[in-house]
Each structure stands twice: as structure tokens, then as C-alpha cells.
Amino acid sequence: MMDKDRSGTINFNEFLEKLRPPMSSARSQVISQAFQKLDKTGDGVVTVEDLQGVYNSKHHPKHKSGE
């Protein structure tokens, strides 16, 4: 489970803990940038609402093809 503290959100540390093995500094920076893109409100946590703003299934190839 990513939401270790059961807050209903995933903070950056919870996000990183699930990415294994330990990462180099360069990779950690890339992951940080990805998290920041998901965290649309910039509050340090990723909510369902943040994800809805980033991902739209209507653009997924399987949705487009009718699968």
C-alpha cells in the first residue's frame, strides 16, 4: 500500500518508498519531477483529483479503439 499513513493521499516520501532499489541522485531528481507533475496543486501530496487532472482515459489507445 502506498498510502502508509492512511491519510487518503500519497506524499512524496510514501511515493519514493515504493520505488526500489535505492536510486542514484540523478534518478531521484527525475522521480521528483514526475511527482511534481502529478501534484497539480503543489501541496506535496497526490490526490485523486490531481490524478484526474493529469490522466484522461479518453485518450488511452484501448479506449479509442473500443477495447
UniProtKB/TrEMBL annotation:
**A GO term, aspect molecular function:** calcium ion binding
| Name recorded for this polypeptide | EF-hand domain-containing protein
Spell out the Pfam families in the cross-references.
EF-hand_7 (PF13499)
Give start and end of each EF-hand domain: 1-25, 26-61
Q: Which PROSITE patterns match?
A: EF_HAND_1, EF_HAND_2
Q: Keywords of this protein's UniProt record, alphabetized? A: Calcium, Metal-binding, Repeat
InterPro entries to which the protein is assigned, alphabetical: Ca-bind, EF-hand-dom_pair, EF_Hand_1_Ca_BS, EF_hand_dom
